[in-house]
């Protein structure tokens, strides 16, 4: 379910959104590369890993660039950095699957390698959905500031409890 918009919201610069997408996308791409390598070794035997690496890198950059634009525009509409809803859930699937297939086909000129890249990309993307939960919205800026202040208060209270004089004498009492 999409979150309510934040009245004090300001859009994040595109370069920050894109950098974040590329960082997370590189982790996803590494998992896709591992899955595709294993799948290709099982089904195709020995062939060049370089082609799969290049196809994976091209697909990742294309996907994350498109998703950065879509996420930023959707955030502008909702006035929230992570609004959740159907758009951040459906759009990545519609972008990743054709991109992995197309990049692998473009680089390797092999339909079987393209299907392996699509399968590996689908495996990783669908496997990551329960962990990422793109349909759930993130915190607003006010909620994040409130939570940070709460954690800071808990930390200060924890330090005073551990360093207080009442705690130390209990440690050095002789046992009867």
Structure description:
This protein has 176 residues and is mainly α. The chain is 74% helix and 0% strand. It contains six helices and no strands. It has helices spanning 14-43, 49-78, 87-108, 111-132, 141-163, 168-171. α1 (14-43) packs antiparallel against α2 and α3 (87-108) runs antiparallel to α4 (111-132). The model has no long low-confidence stretch (mean pLDDT 77).
Quick structural gist:
This protein has 176 residues and is mainly α. It has helices at residues 14-43, 49-78, 87-108, 111-132, 141-163, 168-171.
Distance between the termini: 60 Å
Tell how many strands the DSSP assignment holds.
Answer: 0
Low-confidence parts = none
SSE order: HHHHHH
What is the strand content? Answer: under 5%
The largest sheet, given as strand count, sense and whether it forms a barrel, is:
none
Number of helices: 6
Mean pLDDT: 77
Helix content: over 70%
> What Rg is obtained from the alpha carbons, in whole angstroms?
23 Å
Structural class: mainly alpha
Task: Name the overall outline.
Answer: elongated
